[in-house]
Design a protein that fits this description.
It is a single chain. By secondary structure, the protein is an alpha/beta fold. The protein has one domain: Nucleotidyltransferase, domain 5. Strands 3-2-1-4-5 form a 5-stranded mixed β-sheet, with helices on both faces. Strand 4, helix 2 and strand 5 form a beta-alpha-beta unit. Helix 1 packs across helix 2. The N and C termini lie far apart (54 Å).
Length: 130
């Protein structure tokens, strides 16, 4: 099973390619505020480097938090969209062992269908002035 792993909760974003539960390549880059502009290009770069394309993926693993509000939203949105569009399962976890937990879910045939972020706290929403 070829699995793409995504982690975007920090300024340095991370992608990993797994064959079942074995990591065979990874890509890290300083995404910062450009994450939404770079993530799909970086995924494509990693896949091409390994002779793959999106349709050769069998699942998506994603870190769901806690972490940066915007970073988590972007990474999880990309994971959910790819899984939906490619008709492949998506699984997530929210711990230090997140890749292994999410990979185990996928290898057991689990599919969350829609991953929801875990921000680690209540959102800080400004109140309307009027």
């Amino acid at each position: 099973m070829r699995i793409l792993a995504i982690r975007t909760d920090r300024p340095e974003a991370e992608l990993g390619l797994f064959d079942n539960s074995e990591l065979f390549d990874e890509l890290k880059w300083r995404a910062g505020r450009n994450l939404s502009l770079t993530i799909l290009a970086k995924i494509t770069e990693l896949l091409k480097k390994n002779g793959l394309d999106f349709h050769k993926l069998d699942g998506i693993a994603v870190y769901k938090g806690p972490g940066s509000f915007t970073g988590l939203r972007i990474g999880i949105s990309v994971a959910n969209t790819l899984a939906y569009g490619l008709r492949i399962p998506v699984a997530s976890a929210a711990s230090r062992q997140w890749p292994q937990i999410a990979l185990d879910k996928l290898l057991k045939g689990e599919n969350e269908q829609i991953v929801l972020p875990k921000y680690g706290g209540e959102p800080n929403i400004s109140r309307p002035k009027k």
